[in-house]
Structures are given as C-alpha cells and as structure tokens.
Amino acid sequence: MNPLMIDIPPGGIAMPNLLSRYAECTIWLARYMERIENLARLIDVTETFVRARSTSTGWLSIVQINADDERFFERHAVASEENVVGFYVIDRENPNSIVSIAHAARENARSLRPLISTEMWMHLNMFTNAISALGPTDIRPSNLSALCARLKQDCQTHHGITEGTFYRDQAWLFYLIGRNLERADQITRLIDIKYHTLLPSVAGVGSEVDIGQWAAVLRSAAAYHAYRRTVPGDMTPAHVAGFLLKNDGFPRSLSTSLRQLHWAVGHLRTDYGLKNGYAAAERIEELRATLAEQTVEDIILRGLHEFLDWVQRELHLVQGEIARAFWPPAMPAAAAHPDPDPGLSQEQSQS
Amino acid sequence: MSDSGSDFGSAFGSDPGQHDAQQGPGLFVSYDTPDFYCELMNRRDPAPDSLTLIRERLAHFGLTELRQRARVAEADLYNLGITFTVYTDRDAIDRILPVDLIPRVLTAAEWDHVERGVQQRVAAINHFLWDIYHERRILKDGIVPAGLVLGNSNYRPEMEGLDVPGGVYVHINGTDLVRDGAGNFLVLEDNARTPSGVSYVIENRHMMLRSMPDLAAGLDLMPVDEYGPRLRRALTETAPGGIRDAEVVLLSPGIYNSAYFEHVFLAREMGVPLVEGRDLMVENGRVFMRTVAGPRPVHSIYRRLNDDFLDPQVFNPDSMLGVPGLVDAYRRGNVTIANAIGTGVADDKAVYAYMPRIIRYYLGEEPILSNVETHICGEPEGLAYTLANLDRLVVKPVGESGGYGLIIGPHATQAELETFRASLLADPANYISQPVIDLSVCPTLCEAGVEARHVDLRPFAVTGESTWVLPGGLSRVALRKGSLVVNSSQGGGSKDTWVLAS
C-alpha cells in the first residue's frame, strides 16, 4: 500500500454523486499540472545538454519528442533555442505550450470550483496569471533556468496544496489517476530525449560527456541523489534507464506511477463499487507485467525508444478505457483542452 | 450580473438644505454636506448608538490607510476569483465587482420594516402567479388588465393548470429598493426570474471582516452565512411530493456565463452538485444526472438559466444549454424547477404598477413597502395627471428595458416634451409615469476623497414552506459622481450591507 494514500477511510466515503464531467475535468487538471512540470524539466535538461555540447540540434529533440514537428516548422525555420523555448513557453497558438496548458488547467479547475478547495483555486489562478504575463525577456537564456525552477516549484506547490486540502473521495482517486498517467507518460519522454539528443553522434556513448548527460537526466527528474544512494558503481545508461523505469522507491519512476495508477483505479471499484474500470485495470496490469518481466538490458537490446513509444501508446489506451467507463461517449467531451477540437482521442497530440 | 438591470430611470432633483447635515472630522472632513438622505451622515431619525460608533470609528481612519486597505482587498478578491468573467476571442478576463470599504448600515428597525415588506411582496407574487396560471380571478375581477398578463412575452402557456409544490413559484426573489429624500424605502423593481448578486453579499462580508476588523469589532451584526443552507432547505421542502432526501442540483449555463462564480459559490454553500445541461438527461419523464456510477435521479433544480434555454423541445430549439424533455418531466410533477417557469410575467414593468393592488387583492393588506408612485397611463386619471405634469415626471414605456424610450421631464426641452406628448396620446397603455426621486447616498471612497454616492439595495428572499429574507442584501453604489446607474457594467460597485441586530 502506498503511504500517500492510506488516508482514505476503509469502505470509502459515502458520496455517490461525482458527475462524470467532474471526473473528466479532474483527470485533466491533474494531467495538465503534471505536464507543465515535466515540460519545465525537459526544457531545463535540454538547456544543460546544449550548453555542454555547444550544438543546437538539442532543441529539435523536444519538438520531435512531443511530435510537434509540423506545427513548429509552420511557424519557425530553425529549431533555435529562442524559437523552441518561445514555442513551448509563451506561444499561445501552440496548444502544447506552457501558457496554453496552464490556461487549459485553469479552465478545468474553473469547472471544478464546486469541488476543489479555495486554496487550490487561488493558487492556480495566481499561477496562471503569472504565466500569462510571461514575455520574451523572461525566457532569455540567462533567465531560463530560474524560470524552469519557478515553474517546477509552482507545480509542486499545486501538488502540495492538493495533497493537503482536496477532499478524499472519488474525485481524489480520479486526480491520482490523472497525475500518474501523466507522470508515467512524461518519464518515458524524459528518457527518450537523451536518446534523441545523442542519435546524430554515436561516438560519445560511455564517454564523460555521455555520463554527464545521464546525470543531467537524473537531476532533471529529481532522481540524482536517490540514484547515487541506491545504485552503487558506474553510472551506465542501463543503470540510469533502469532506475527511472523500474525503481519502486523513486516517486517518478514508471513502475511507481503505474503502481499508483493501478491502485487508484482499483479503489474506485473496491471503495465505491465503480466496476466499470476493469478494462483500464486489466490494461494497466499487462503494462506492469511487461515492465516487470524484462530487465532493462532486455529492453535496451530490443530498442529503448521503441519500448518507450509502446508505453506511451498503451497509456493512451488506458486513458481511453477510463473515458469509456466513466464518461461514456453518449456525452460530449466536457473538459477544457488547449487544442481547439476537444474529444476523447485528443488526449495528446504528443503520442 | 447581467440581469441586474434596474435603471433608476429617473434623474434627481435636489432641494438644498432640506436636512441637517452633520459635518464629521477626519475621513469626512471634506465630505460634501449631502442634499440627499445620507444613510450614514444625514439621517432624519436619531441614530442608534452603534451607528454613531461606526461613524466615529470611520472618522478616525486616515484616507491613506483606507486606500491601502482597499488595494489589498481588491487584490484579494481577484486572487480568490470572486469575479465575473468577460470572455474575449482569446482570453478569459476576470473582473472584480469593486467593493467600497465603507459599509452601508441599516438599523434593526429599518430591517424589520424591509423584511416584512419583502415577505409580503413575495407572498403576493406567488398568489398572483398561481392565479393567472389557474383561475385568473384577478383578471376576471378587472384588477389587472388581462391583456397585460396574457399578452406578455413572459407568459408561459406551458404553466397553465400545473400545480407546483407548496404553490411556490418564486423560490428566490430579489427586490430592488431605493430610498427617497425622506429615507422611505421604495420598491423600484421586482426580480422574480433568476436574480443574481447574492454571492457578493456574502463575500463582501468576508472581505470586510478581513479588511476592516477594527471597524466591525464588537458590533452586533446580523450574519449572512445562512443563505446556502436556507436555500437548500427551501428546495428540499418544495421537492416533488413523497420524495425523501431530495437530490438538489444547481443548473448553470457553464463557465462561460458571467455569473459562473456565483453559481459555484451557491452550489458550494448548498453542498449540491453544479450541473450543466449536458450533465442531465430525461428518461420516461424523470430527470437524471450522469455520474461515474451511471445515471442518478434529480428532484429539485435551482436553475440559473432563463426559461428560453431550459428545454429545446419546448422553447428555443437551438439551445445547447438546456435539457431535452425537462419541461415534460416538470409537467408530470417529477421534478421541481426553481424559480418556476413563467415567473417573468410577475416582475414585468407594467405589472409592477399594479403590485400594490395585487397585494391588497390577495392578502387584504396595505403594502408595507410602497412602489415608487406610479401613474398608469392606460387609466384615464393616470393619463390626465401625466399629461398635466409632463415636465416634472419620468415617463417610461412598459415594454422596454434598459432605460430606452423614456423621457425625464425636468431634463427635456419643450420640443421633446411635445413630441413625447404625441406618442403618449397615441398609445397611452404603453406608458407609466413616476416622479423624480432624490435617491439616498452613502459616503464612498472616491478618487478625490470620501464623497457621497447614490446607492440602492437588493434584499434576497428565499421561499420554501415559509419566506426567509437574508439580512441586508446587495448594496450597489454608483461610483460616478451624480450617477444613478449602479450596474456593474456601467461603473457600479457594491458595499457590504450591515444590519445592526439591535
């Protein structure tokens, strides 16, 4: 049992009427806040890579990992730092930018205002206002690291306020589902970015630069110290990827996120009798089994990128199962998305 | 607050030196001795001790201090999202309703009078609505012209013969009041559809107790926190017969509605789900909401949606906001809708003129709260009086709102008066006339200092098995000098309304 979650009273709390729309908006609120945090982490680690290698191809990898190539190159000729950072932080036309995602998070929160705490709303409101006010000078290279740090901290503040004030009922479980779905998805992207960045030049594998970059990946996931403490010996790609994918103690690892995801879906059934989640639960179980059955060396041998891609597709299907179970297609999709055509399938233009 | 459109519709004449003004020290040192009834500084009756205390405490505030507190309070409201939202193509812009930190104070005696008056008015309106949708005695007896009611655009034939639980049509009523030069409360308008603004009453109080704790300390103010539970109780009491543990919901047009904050606020205060049309469905004449556990029955709906949008099968077929089949479920008695459909016929400007007679007809009592003196031009005496005094009256067409097509006698040229006289004679039944009112004022923090600004008052009444009136109500203030328009869209703000318990 996860210590974070044992505070739900046995048998759940009698509150039978969570609107489907609330469930949907809750999942998206959690996902978007988690997504902003991870985007900030991605930008931060890319900045580190680029600085170390004095190359600009690093910035292209964020675009590729988010599958935004088409949209990006419609607007920019080159993937320079200025263009990519602008595109992902302050560009309102880009639905995957932090300003667009923050706006979508707030619109979902606005729908959820009857449910969420005043503190949650107040913080989100101030956070979104601050992001809306960001301009070109805020994303200059000299300010970028501090900006990423601030964004991460604001997202963590959101998590903290939510943890401390959000009422523990079905909505809380949906919130955890959203958070862990997104966290699982994003850790695969963070690992993948390292591979993308290095693909043009295979020469550096195992070199000091390479190790330095794996350390940067760990740091950007807030995993460096935990890794050092628990994985003795040389820092190899397999060790680092293994830690981020399979370490059960690290809160942002794929295995931890999947375990918590499974737990939350399971408790919808056991505590609230919401049996519809079984299809999603089965899919998560298969995903967990596939991850557990292989060593990280197996995964790398078969292709790390392909594995990460497969995980992202599976997570997308899990989201689809949850949508089918709890807000059936008879209903028009309700949650606010940064993308102009909301629907079940537009979960991510990233996948 | 889109439906808060009470245009005072009257300019004011002044009668300098009518009252004894009290020049105050400190904050009020430059306060214009108002020619109007000032609720704080220039009352006609001896003020109770607690009011004098408030006045003295206020006088000791510095202007700089008050401005500083006002800035903090505004930032607070903004961050808390106590806002109405204006949507543009690209953005959601949250605006606050400006709140003045100098409260509007009502004495216990004043409140007792207003409360009884509002209760009486709500009772009469509910009797009237039952009657016109059933026996129409008041029309047959010639008290109110039948054409005025049956030809009214807000009359809903769907309501004919339908018995609503408890005979309650208007569960939530907002009565717009003004005070004249003598301090008398007068009803300017009834709001019997979906009156808004109550959330600001309660949030203003929270804000005032945060911002001005030293002003409120030790005063016995009547609380405003009970509104949510009272409303829920009323909606439970008027749920369809035989339902225990009625499921109550608040039906909102959604986050794009400018009053969405208030919908959230009320849903939270009542502890009921805030639903949108797409969250509800009707099956076999029963209403359900879509939950993660499947459809769940709904029994009482507090709707913040106009009649037109409630059910595309009956009203506006293009409406995406409503619930197909809702009116059928309603007519079968399976669900309560609050306020009932078709209440707009009771708060119409033309019907307003008849309200004193409606009160006498159903209740056999004299109205406790007077209307603004209104002459019905459709009646010979009213027309004669209006024609004889055209240069001293405000004349309004009954079908219009928002101040269109009216004439303010004292401000009109001779030629304008003559043109208007011709229109009036051509269709007298379309007009009412009222005297120009000296609206009361309150000291208000303005750019140049503390100045007198005109205010109105909207008390909110909640009716289930009985009628309860929230102590105080929304005091709206016209922030522009001399302006009588209190609407938020036109530079209006609000004040916390303090009702002294003794």
Explain this structure to me?
The complex is a heterodimer of chains A (351) and B (502). Chain A has 351 residues and is mainly α. Chain A folds into two domains: 19-167, no CATH class; 169-332, no CATH class. Chain A has helices at residues 20-53, 57-65, 69-75, 81-89, 98-111, 118-132, 141-165, 170-198, 208-220, 224-230, 237-246, 254-272, 278-293, 296-326. In chain A, α1 runs antiparallel to α2 (57-65), α1 runs antiparallel to α7 and α5 (98-111) packs antiparallel against α6 (118-132). The radius of gyration of chain A is 20 Å and the shape is globular. The two termini of chain A are 31 Å apart. Chain B has 502 residues and is an alpha+beta fold. Chain B has two domains: 26-367 and 438-499, no CATH class; 373-435, Dna Ligase, domain 1. In chain B, the strands form six sheets. In chain B, strands 3-23-22-19-18 form a five-stranded mixed beta sheet. Chain B has a five-stranded mixed beta sheet with strand order 13-5-4-20-21. The longest helix of chain B is centred in the N-terminal third of the chain and has 25 residues, at 108-132. The interface between A and B is medium-sized, with 34 and 27 residues.
Kindly summarize this structure in a few lines:
The complex is a heterodimer of chains A (351) and B (502). Chain A is mostly helical. Chain A contains 14 helices and no strands.
How would you describe this structure in keywords?
heterodimer, A: 351 residues, mainly alpha, 2 domains, 68% helix, 0% strand, globular, disordered C terminus, B: 502 residues, alpha+beta, Dna Ligase, domain 1, five-stranded mixed beta sheet, 14 helices, 23 strands, 29% helix, 22% strand
Record the SSE blueprint.
The complex is a heterodimer of chains A (351) and B (502).
Chain A lengths: L19 H34 L3 H9 L3 H7 L5 H9 L8 H14 L6 H15 L8 H25 L4 H29 L9 H13 L3 H7 L6 H10 L7 H19 L5 H16 L2 H31 L25
Helix pairs in contact in A: 1-2, 1-5, 1-7, 1-8, 1-9, 2-8, 5-6, 6-7, 8-12, 8-14, 12-13, 13-14
Chain B lengths: L48 H11 L3 H18 L2 E5 L4 E5 L2 E8 L1 H25 L4 H4 L5 H5 L21 E8 L5 E7 L6 H14 L1 H4 L10 H11 L10 E4 L8 H11 L3 E2 L4 E4 L2 E6 L2 E4 L2 E4 L22 H6 L4 E3 L10 H5 L1 H9 L6 E2 L3 E2 L3 H9 L4 E5 L9 E2 L5 H13 L4 E5 L5 E6 L2 E10 L1 E4 L3 E3 L4 E5 L13 E8 L3
Parallel strand pairs in B: 3-23, 5-13, 6-7, 6-11, 11-12
Antiparallel strand pairs in B: 1-2, 4-5, 4-20, 8-9, 9-10, 14-17, 15-16, 15-17, 18-19, 19-22, 20-21, 22-23
